[in-house]
Amino acid sequence: MKILVIDDEKPTLSMFRLFLTAYGYEVHTAEDGEKGLALFQEIRPGIVFTDLKMPGMDGLEVLRRIRKTGIPSELIIITGHGDMENAVEALDLDASDFINKPVERHALSSALARAEKRKQMQKDLPFELLKTKESENFIVSLKGKLTASASPLFSSLLEILNPEHEQQVTLMFNDTFSIDRSGIALLMEVIRELKQKKISIAMENLPYNYLRIFQMVGMDKFSTLKEALTDD
Amino acid sequence: MTGPYGPPHIKDAVRRPRLFSLLDHHFHKQNFFITGQAAQGKSTLVASYLQESQKVSLWFHLCLDDNDDAKLFDRLAAGIRSLSGTGQDDIRGFIPATTLGIEKDLFRYIEGLTLMLKDLSFPLVMVFDDAECLEEISSGFEMINGILNTRFYRHKFFILSRSNLPFTIPRLKTEHHGFFLKNEDLSFTLDETMAFFQGKYEGKDLDIERIHKITDGWAGGLTLVFESLRQSGGVSNLPERVSSEAFDYFSREIYKTLPESIREFLRLTAIPDIIDLDMVTHMAEPVDGLGILTTLEKRNLFIQRVDSDDKGPQFKYHNLFRDFLLQDLLRTLGQDEVKALYHKAGLVSWEKKNPEAAMNYFMKAGGFSDIIRILKIKGADYMIKGKMSGLEKWISCLPDHLVKDDPWLIFFWTMARRIRGGKKNIRDFQKALNLFEETKDARGILLALGYLIEAGVFIREPSSVIFKWIQKAEDYLETMTEKDRFPWARGLLWQQIGLGYIAGDGNIPKGVSACRKAILLGTRINNPDLVLHASITMAFGHVQAGDFVNARQMLVKIKGMTREGGHPEFRALKNIVDIDFALKSGRFDDAGRLLIKSEQDIEKFGLIFLYPSLVEAGALYRVYTERFDEAFRMADHLNDFSILEGNDFYKGIAHRIKALSFLKQGKSQEAAHEIEKALNALDQLRKGDIHHFLTQQLAGIIYFETRDFTRAESFLRPSRDYFETISSDLNCVENDIISGLILWEQKDIPRALFFLHQGIETAFREGYVFFPLISGKILVRAFVIWMAFKGHFPGESVMGTLGLQSYPSLVMDEMDRVFSSARSREKDRIIENLRPLYKYLLPNIRIETLGRFNILCGHKVLDSRIFEGARPLLLLKSIVLHGSRDIPKEILVDDLWPNADVAAGEKNFKINLHRLRKALEPKIKKEFGYSYIVQKAGLVSLDPALVTLDVDEFLSLSVQAAEKEKNNDFDIALELYDRAAGLYQGDYFAEEPYLEWVLRKRDLLRAKFIEVLEKKARLHEELDQIQKALETWQRVLNADPYSETAYQNLMILYADSGQKNKAREVFEGCLLMFRNELGTEPDKEIFNIYDKIKSR
């Protein structure tokens, strides 16, 4: 599979080229957004990594323009360490994932695994909540892109949950799951309410980088977070 | 060139002067792109051009297989070897598969071919025919693209293709180095069409214009028309247009006139790619195959003879014609029969020991079991020989169900994508391993384990995972029942265990030991490839460990195994070792150049394991060249690499680089902070001891700077012991110097001096000029203390290499520290011990007396005003005049104040000597006093080590020149005379014309100058250097216009060289000079000479 890496730091490009080639990808690199965009249209890579902060066209602009081309590709934004605001903005712009600098091996592997999985799946699935019950554990599967528009679905979920019958809710994140800023706010609100109802919450099968962002917004104070298993 | 790489045989080709002259005109270019439709005469044109111009060529008929870079490389390399007269064992162009890289082998192949071509001593033309069969995205296409993009200067490349191929050659390069012949250029003109038919239809009235019009100059059309005419005798039945699309129709028209037995023969022989008589015997009914093929060839009917060295005549159908025949074969026999024929061809090829051709035929026949049978027999051989290229193609054509449960097929399939398979390789090697274990296939287990470890290392699996496999492999090797079996597989496994330990697990000593076992096994079974790969892995281990001494030794061995230039791993490792050496020797320009070369190779060949060593070297280079910000960024990048790789090792190195960077900037507290982090990260010894002790040593130096001597010593002592055991002298020197200074600070003088002596003596002995860890300040301190107490001045050349003259003020400060701490009874000895160093740091003074009087201090002319009057300068002149050494002061007083009484003279002398000394040496160190002018026991001298005189040099050169002339060293003598004469810029103390005490010496020196010139002139004469002799005699006359010797010699020289008029002019000039200026006649000898000249 072709991968395009856009970053203004030459050493970072060299490092990505070496690692991703070793992973078995055909790696192309560009030193700025303009060149990256031109190369994207020429080679149509399956996955794109782009640094966020670059002189000239920044990573978010690259993301916007790539989305405009309509060429399907998984876009992974490389953000500075702890740069949650930009990570969330990237998610708003429909980035597939984000990874923090310095890039951890596990984060890279996880982002690649998720991108490859998502490439196989149908895009633009409507958000869905699928509920099943196992004794006192209420399991809710989350599919598709979670945005503020899913609020009624969660309201009805909260209505049916009764702490006398359900002591734990497990939110199970499907591989198609993605989220934006409003979705994060909504999810935060939901788990707060569940906590108020004295229902314990577990979030499972979370992509590694989502787990990091959920930790950053403090969801780990209300819920246990479990990462999705990857080959790595 | 005949044989398999010869151009196709051309029968009755029409000579095409128009195109030949175009090719001639552009033959200075390198790449020739000949593009035209099928049967447009591309091959005929180029083959006949090469034949006529008698150029050495290699002709390659490309086919679909050549899309594979490995196969294409094998063919091209074999062709070039056949020309250079070397066998398959020749190592030129031998580029083994990767040991440490993750990039595909394509670049290795291009580099190998480039080397082979550049080695050829004659110009070569390489022709790539049927190039349209290369797919744009294939590695074979990329390889040709790479060759065309390389500049060879002598060799030429012809690309013959039906379509324009999208080679990515920069536009300018294409214009300057490429020439294009397109379809329309190749089309036959009317004249050429006439030439085509000339002599073929004598007496017949052919409408050539019409033929030219309907064929539109298409060469294939002309052949078809010719054949049609041969059969029907006229042109009336020809269609209106004969284009390549009409080929099928036309072929059929001609083909159907042939007897069925021949038609059948043609159909059946369309099955093989190359038709040889052996294959013909098996494929077709007993017919005169050679006769049929030769007849067709003579008629130029879309068949070419392809020469072969030892297999008898071979033929190849034109692709269009072959397609036509195969279609007819399918129509006649049906698919099953055709498949059976392919199967038969496969069997014949297998019998003829050509397994690759056999599998190609079996693939077309759907003979999967045959392919599997051959793969199982030959697969391991391909692996041992590193020929993996076909495996992927053959296995990929097999149905999944035949592959998925067969361990060898899974293994070979995975091996075929060994480098680019990424994570899938782990899964598949693991699966193959499980299946091998189930079937207890020992060889399979050894190989699957080996490549499983390698795949884990390539994709940077966590070290715990890799270590688990290594343990399993070691256990298996230990418990194997038949220990002598499968030595290659066992050797390979040891090599991969070595790689696993070094690059995956980080245990370098164990990795090196495993590589050693692999090398032993490889040597025993005489497998150079295994020995080479294991040696490279071992050298990598040494580099990784920072053990550059062993790495260098290993590289010397590797160099003997393969060609230096043709092996990326060798070159990259050697560059890293050389960078280390250059940095430690202070040769930073060399280090910078090597870094660029190394980076190019590592990126190009994907040598991921060498990348961090390169970044480390780059960061150190920037520290030593004081580009600290850049060094920090590189250290951060190394840290990023460490995080991405998932181990702490390079994190530790990054901290160590930052610590060193802070130390070099004099920020010892920040350095201490970073070195603590490095110590934590590198505390373990598994990476090999060197990094651990290097960090400890740096920590010792940093804590010395922070004056925490106890902590510093706790690091220095163990590292000193370690570096002594591995004979790392430079590290020992740095360690000794710091240890000595610590002891000095702790007032343990005897031990301090012991360490300093040990360190400095070793540094002198080994010729170290740069110390990577210790600063100039520390070096100065150590050296001053050592000299103060040891009193041994190592000589100016050694001092020069140490570069102490760059820090004069530091040296002076250190001397002050030593003086202030010395006991009074030691002080005089210390002063005398340090005096040579003090004097060494003073600028030299040169006094010019011949011509203008000048005093130069360190190459700068001193202003006479600093002498506070004329007397101090006169005093200096007097000292100089009297020979500069041991002059009784009374003589000087007498020169300057002849009329003064003794007391007044003494007083004047003192005052003016003081002024003179002060002017020459405004700042003195009181312990040493004045240095340039010394007064001892009433004798005054200029210090010869500090003050030099042009007059001394002039006299010395004159003597040396005379000596050399005496010893018949004429060239050197002339050079010395020249230098001596050059120093004489004018009379001695010319600006003091009336100073009596100067006159005598002035006359003596002028006489000496003339003597030097005369000797020089005579020597030129003896050596028949007439012009130079004339010039020199003229210089004599300039210095002494009454030199009769000069006049006489000039006259003789002019006369002897046929310039009688000039000789007369000299004579007349002489007479005039003597008569007008002296009122006398010159010596009669000059008249005798003149008479002789006149009478000639």
Total beta strand runs of chain A: 12
Percentage of residues assigned to helices of chain A: 40-55%
Spans of chain A of at least 5 consecutive residues whose pLDDT stays below 50 are: none
Sheet having the most strands of chain B: 5 strands, parallel
Q: What is the structure about, briefly put?
A:
With 232 residues, chain A is α/β, with parallel strands linked by helices.
Description:
In chain A, helix 2 runs parallel beside helix 3. The longest helix of chain A has 16 residues, at 105-120. Chain A has 232 residues and is of the alpha/beta class. In chain A, 41% of the residues are buried. The radius of gyration of chain A is 19 Å and the shape is elongated. Chain A is 41% helix and 26% strand. In chain A, the strands form three sheets. In chain A, strands 2-1-3-4-5 form a five-stranded parallel beta sheet, sandwiched between helices. A five-stranded mixed beta sheet of chain A has the order 6-7-9-11-12. Chain A has a two-stranded parallel ribbon with strand order 8-10. Chain A is built from eight helices and twelve strands. Chain B has 1096 residues and is mainly alpha-helical. Chain B has 52 helices and 15 strands. In chain B, the strands form four sheets. In chain B, strands 2-3-4-1-5 form a five-stranded parallel beta sheet, sandwiched between helices. In chain B, helix 4 packs parallel to helix 5, helix 36 (709-725) runs antiparallel to helix 37 and helix 41 packs antiparallel against helix 42 (824-841). Chain B is flat. Residues 88-93 of chain B have low confidence and may be disordered. Chains A and B meet through helix 1 and helix 5 of A and helix 22 and helix 32 of B.
